[in-house]
Amino acid sequence: MIITTGDRPLTEVAARAERLAERLGVPYAPRGNQSMSKLLSRYGDEEALVVLLQGVRLLRPDRPQLQFHPSMGFVRAKRVLKGESDPMLEAAGMVPGDSVLDCTAGLGADALLFAVHGGERSSVTALESSLPLYALLTEGMAHYASGLVEVDAALRRINVVHSNHLDYLRSLPDNSVDIVYFDPMFREPLEDSAGISPLRAYANSDSLSAESVSEAVRAARKAVVLKEKRGSGEFGRLGFAELLRPGTKTSYGVITIDQRS
Ligand SMILES: C[S@@+](CC[C@H](N)C(=O)[O-])C[C@H]1O[C@@H](n2cnc3c(N)ncnc32)[C@H](O)[C@@H]1O
């Protein structure tokens, strides 16, 4: 992956792109007047992260372009800000101030919801193992402008970490985070999930391991939550109780931590 900017970037945007490249240890490619395909072939690479004034996108000639955008996360965040409920937050039993570890950050929509509902006293850490997706997310969370102050503030509060969740979970002390959340790539994709299909090309699609769940249970104080396709065998295989919701194609499964033990 190389990191570049759009045509004729502001100095501040070029500096941001350069800093990000340095932090990630990947080449910074000044854009000049070059087309993206020329730039990629000059660097002998096939993937570019393009830093823009208020956004960021991921490009590969053979794959759909992926832009940082909280999409449904923004719609859900607005509902939560109005005091409406959200099934994920209910499944997690999250109250403002709780700490959350989102083990499968993706485009950060769920992490945004946790940060909006959790408020300023909460802490939300979002882990992403794919380097291009991590780069998209860390830059997007830091600079995306949604038009809503509360949403932008929540995006900026999320601590995005490039890590495989099993390694990260193993490093955590017992009972150190209120909620641990998993939303892995579904074993059988939902055909009409427009939000997730462009992400699939860049994502880690490994199945969730029993060891990750057991480390999550050790680290969690309140609950471990799994999102999967409704009726998925993953709930039973990994020990989650599926919460069925009428008329939905996805479900949340929960392992509630017994706080007396
Ligand atoms: C279905 S997406 C998550 C979508 C996310 N909940 C959202 O709201 O945008 C799953 C993400 O988890 C990442 N992932 C899968 N396995 C992982 C692992 N072991 N550690 C960290 N991230 C992982 C994938 O790369 C992908 O980006």
Automatic annotation (TrEMBL):
<dbReference type="Pfam" id="PF04445">
    <property type="entry name" value="SAM_MT"/>
</dbReference>
<dbReference type="InterPro" id="IPR029063">
    <property type="entry name" value="SAM-dependent_MTases_sf"/>
</dbReference>
<dbReference type="InterPro" id="IPR007536">
    <property type="entry name" value="16SrRNA_methylTrfase_J"/>
</dbReference>
<keyword id="KW-0808">Transferase</keyword>
<dbReference type="GO" id="GO:0008990">
    <property type="term" value="F:rRNA (guanine-N2-)-methyltransferase activity"/>
</dbReference>
<protein>
    <submittedName>
        <fullName>SAM-dependent methyltransferase</fullName>
    </submittedName>
</protein>
<keyword id="KW-0489">Methyltransferase</keyword>
